[in-house]
Design goal:
By secondary structure, the chain is an alpha/beta fold. Helix content is 30%, strand content 19%. The chain contains 5 helices and 8 strands. The strands form 2 sheets. The chain has a 4-stranded parallel β-sheet. Strands 4-3-6-7 form a 4-stranded mixed β-sheet, with no helix packed on it. The longest helix is centred in the middle third of the chain and has 16 residues. It is globular, with a radius of gyration of 16 Å. It starts with 7 loop residues before the first strand and ends with a helix. Bound molecules: iron/sulfur cluster. The site of iron/sulfur cluster (SF4) has 12 residues, from helix 2. Iron/sulfur cluster binds next to helix 2.
Length: 175
């Protein structure tokens, strides 16, 4: 690795302050947008916007079985599962070529969440927090050794240190 090359990290675009959320807002995360920003090269991705859902857009949710949840639009019930799967497979394949050293993702998102995303019961029962976002599921399956963390967990100094150590180690070994 050339000494000058910064680790390249994928990130949920809303965490960098981009106004890509369903309601036109963002979820700027200070650690990412201020502390890490000068040290890394970002590859921001908003799966829902890139899928063409627009800003603003109706919120979407995971529903059904946690092992294979459906991704549906709130209210209309439109099923986006197949569309997101096809998009994610193609997008992740393009990301593989970028030799990413890590990924920071937005917690609780039906597209970006890494773990414990609410999966809703279509019959109206309580949601179960054991889902994985529809885009992240494809990313983590294709790149199982990629260090992935959520912005919320990175507030923990120990988890942050472990994540950054894995990122730097992977960056050193990148071609
Ligand atoms: S959580 Fe993911 S899909 Fe939702 S706004 Fe942020 S980047 Fe886009």
């Amino acid at each position: 690795v050339p000494a000058t090359r910064k680790p390249r990290l994928g990130i949920s675009a809303c965490l960098l302050g981009r106004r890509v959320r369903w309601d036109g807002g963002h979820r700027r995360d200070a650690f990412c947008a201020e502390v890490l920003d000068p040290l890394v090269e970002w590859v921001p991705v908003c799966p829902e916007v890139e899928l063409g859902l627009g800003i603003p857009r109706p919120p979407i949710r995971l529903t059904g079985r946690s092992e294979a949840p459906r991704l549906v639009v709130d209210g209309s019930g439109e099923d986006l599962t197949a569309r997101m799967q096809a998009f994610a497979e193609a997008r992740v394949e393009a990301l593989v070529a970028l030799d990413l050293s890590g990924w920071i993702t937005k917690r609780d998102s039906p597209s970006c969440g890494m773990a414990q995303v609410p999966v809703h019961d279509p019959r109206g029962g309580p949601a179960v927090r054991d889902g994985v976002g529809a885009f992240l599921r494809v990313l983590m399956a294709r790149l199982p050794h990629l260090p992935v963390e959520e912005e919320g967990r990175l507030a923990d100094p120990l988890l942050r240190e472990r994540f950054m150590a894995r990122v730097l180690d992977r960056a050193r070994r990148a071609p």
